[in-house]
Amino acid sequence: MLLETAAAPPARRGLSVRTRGLVHVYRGEGRDVAALAGVDLSVRAGEMVALLGPSGAGKSTLLSLLAGLFRPTAGSVLVGDLDLTKAAQPELDRLHASGVSLMLQGAARNLLPFLTAEENIAFAQHAARRAAGGDAHLPGAPELLGTVGLADVGREPLSSFTPGQLQLVTLAVVLATAPGLLLADEPTSRLDHGARELVLAALARVNQQLGTTVVLVTHDADVARWVPRTVTIRDGRIGGEGRAGEEYAVVTADGFLPLPGHALELLAPGTLVRFELEDGVYHLRVEADGEQTGKQDGVDES
Question: Measured between alpha carbons, how far is 57 from 61 in angstroms, rounded to an integer?
Fold first, then answer.
């Protein structure tokens, strides 16, 4: 089955995302688990961002909160102008119908296997039109399938598709409601190298051609070269950012500064450090037994 692209549907403006002091605690029997511990995240409208981190870091919890699937323990979540922590259920329903689409991990969780690709798209759009009172103007299935590289295969049975192609069909289905924000949970999971690159290229094309804001979750560091900006999640906090191949640490609102992995290998827990400013550059100096041991790193003040 050949992958073919077609003209993209008309572009629409993406939705911005902003969280402040986001905390989420899962209540268990006899113990509470903090999945998120004060996350401050800003994503511009039309931006493409990857949330990178190991399993258990809090990435999927953050994605679910951005989707408005449940409310955080503390903090705020804004999608566009809507504060999800204060929104009434009808507002959230409208947002889910046409503003935000969530691409769950694994194609099987997003598709009805007994329907064709076009029928899956039509099914998703039927629900969106009902929520919008029947007035929603939505792109056609051939347009959407062409955008993700599957032109002219919309009526073939899903059983004839490869895992990578099924993931592309999933992408077309979650785009069926013309969302301003696309949230993708591990979109390249369990795909071979070639299929992974096709899916990432399709996500980038959706972002660039349609103007859709894309936030994806991944544990795959290779995804970073496809995404203009990566945000590392560690232990429920923002651990760092990557832009254009450069890695940055992020100072949180409470003054927390997570160090990159290579620095943690050099600095044992309990190490005393101090910052000094010299000629416009901040230097991290390590103290041993109360005495300075030398310059470890420098960061341009600007």
Answer: 9
**Mean pLDDT of all residues in 250-268:** 58
pLDDT(241) > 70: yes
Could you count the other beta carbons within 10 Å of the beta carbon of residue 66?
23
Distance CA 107, CA 176 (A): 15
pLDDT at 290: 46
Per-residue b or e along 145-184, where b marks 16 or more CB atoms closer than 10 Å to that residue's CB: bbbbbbbebbeeebeebeebbbbbbbbbbbbbbbbbbbbb
Instruction: Report the pLDDT averaged over residues 192-198.
Output: 94
What residue ranges define each of the domains in the chain, with the CATH number in brackets?
Answer: 17-241 (3.40.50.300), 260-302 (no CATH)
Residues 6+ apart with CB under 8 A from 10: 139
Cα–Cα distance list, 19 to 44, 46, 207, 296 (Å): 12, 17, 21, 32
How far is 118 from 134, CA to CA, in rounded Å? 19
- Predicted pLDDT at 200: 96
- Do residues 51 and 59 make contact, with C-beta atoms less than 8 angstroms apart? yes
